[in-house]
Amino acid sequence: MTADHVEPPPGRAPRPPARSRSGAAGSTFLGLPGAPRDVGQVRQERSFRAAARDALADDQLRRNLRRATGTIRDRRANVVHEVPDWAQLRAAGAAIKDDVLANLDTYLVRLEEQVTARGGQVHWARDAVEANEIVTGLVLAAGASEVVKVKSMATQEIGLNEALERAGVAAWETDLAELIVQLGHDRPSHILVPAIHRNRTEIRDIFAAEMGAAGRAPDPGLTDDPAALAETARLHLREKFLRAEVAVSGANFAVAETGTIAVLESEGNGRMCLTLPRVLITVMGLEKIVPTWRDLEVFLQLLPRSSTGERMNPYTSTWAGVTPGDGPREFHLVLLDNGRTATLADPDGRAALRCIRCSACLNVCPVYERTGGHAYGSVYPGPIGAVLSPQLTGVADNPDLPFASTLCGACLDVCPVAIDIPSMLVHLRSRVVDAKDARHPVPTPEAAAMRTLAWVMRDPRRWSWALRTGTFGRFLGVPGRRRLRRLPPPLSAWTSSRDLPKPPRESFRDWWARYGPVSAGPGEPGGSDG
Ligand code: SF4
């Protein structure tokens, strides 16, 4: 098979050649591309509710999650609190990202110019299918039948491993947690710690059962001692690093000013990938740009503290283009859209593109801590996944993710780039409802009840009348002030998981009418000292 004859993925017709500024034939695309169906990991296969119910029944999973998220949460809190200007750093991070999003066209072109000037090639992928075609074509053109990968969420988003496998290319994950996920035929469940749902005994069992078929087998007497597990993975991966001709990486940041790509990691496996193979291919979401080196300084402080709870990452690798006699001889940068432009087009949703994938919001989220990442059905789990995935695919394809939240606000408090996830969730919920209404010209009973309620509450006179006539009081159990355990359909779903408060004896409006304003005395709240 050659680069020109890559099989299309399931459900897709053959496409025209990808647009590449590096010289390939092009086609004109008008519109905002979303993440295509049947490829990649950014869509729910089951509803969140059903998947979460299964996860909640798994005691071991919940124990693993509670321990892991609690540990990372505490470490983060300690290192964040020791930075006196954390609030300013956070504001700077948000401002830099907003500038990038507002001027993305300019920065992307600048990045392309700089990468090209330093001997790299830039490829533009409008979606997952196109990105997979580009990468597969490059790997086959290099004559490789296997690649090593450094942890990359973008390649999981597009389903690159599966695309490479269809083309006869084996892709080996080299991040330890990703290796565990791959050998376990599993899916990542956390942005930073993809195997967070596994404990060390499970990891030992996976290594013992699967590692031999994928390369160097572990010692027969392998224990679940963390050092022994790490050494086993190291020996297994070392063979692959020394053999691989092609590496595929993600990117944490790309500096438009210099064409520099930055990867932050903890194990050093990434650095092996980035330096040993002859060809390096980086797949990067187009929002990962920072304008200048100076801007990178802000994120190199925000990211490690927010993600691993460290003051700096153990390994920070940066490179620009190619350097003769040092590192890869070919460098390709694939800039991935896959729904990002569509996300950018929504003024109330675009701040999700500020995300630097630190995972702090996952570790504080009470929903994530109980369900884990698989329930979200996307490579992006937790609060950020609940706002990013529906925007990449369109809300119709991930309709219940915006509801997978208590709106407690903990995610906003810890986010190093101040993404207001709770407001965005509410906004996306309204888009889900609007989309549902558009599909059902005849309103559902729930929609009809809510519309009636909204109509009454919009007007003070209507609302007073409803209270006076007892319309809502009767509905809620007044005058007998019985506590209703369950509301009747269509609102019964609401009370199936919540307590309905006992209605008060009298409404606030009636109380106010009887007592009127009470003037506070001097020195009391609301009182005047003057
Ligand atoms: S939304 Fe904020 S806290 Fe969550 S992963 Fe992204 S940057 Fe981190």
Draw up the topology in text:
Elements: H1 48-56, H2 59-81, H3 86-102, H4 104-117, E1 121-125, H5 128-141, E2 146-149, H6 153-158, H7 160-166, E3 170-173, H8 176-183, H9 200-214, H10 226-243, E4 246-249, E5 253-255, E6 260-265, H11 269-275, E7 279-285, E8 289-290, H12 293-307, E9 315-320, E10 330-336, H13 340-344, H14 360-364, H15 366-371, H16 382-393, H17 410-414, H18 421-439, H19 445-457, H20 460-468, H21 471-476, H22 492-495, H23 508-515
Helix pairs in contact: 3-12, 9-10, 16-18
The structure holds iron/sulfur cluster (SF4).
Iron/sulfur cluster binds at residues 306, 355-361, 384, 414-417, 419.
Describe this structure in words.
The protein is built from 23 helices and ten strands. The strands form two sheets. The protein has a six-stranded parallel beta sheet with strand order 1-10-7-4-2-3, sandwiched between helices. 43% of the residues are buried. It has helices at residues 48-56, 59-81, 86-102, 104-117, 128-141, 153-158, 160-166, 176-183, 200-214, 226-243, 269-275, 293-307, 340-344, 360-364, 366-371, 382-393, 410-414, 421-439, 445-457, 460-468, 471-476, 492-495, 508-515; strands at 121-125, 146-149, 170-173, 246-249, 253-255, 260-265, 279-285, 289-290, 315-320, 330-336. β5 and β6 form a beta hairpin. By secondary structure, the chain is of the alpha/beta class. The longest helix is centred in the first third of the chain and has 23 residues, at 59-81. The chain folds into two domains: 3-24 and 45-340, no CATH class; 445-515, no CATH class. It binds iron/sulfur cluster. Iron/sulfur cluster binds at residues 306, 355-361, 384, 414-417, 419.
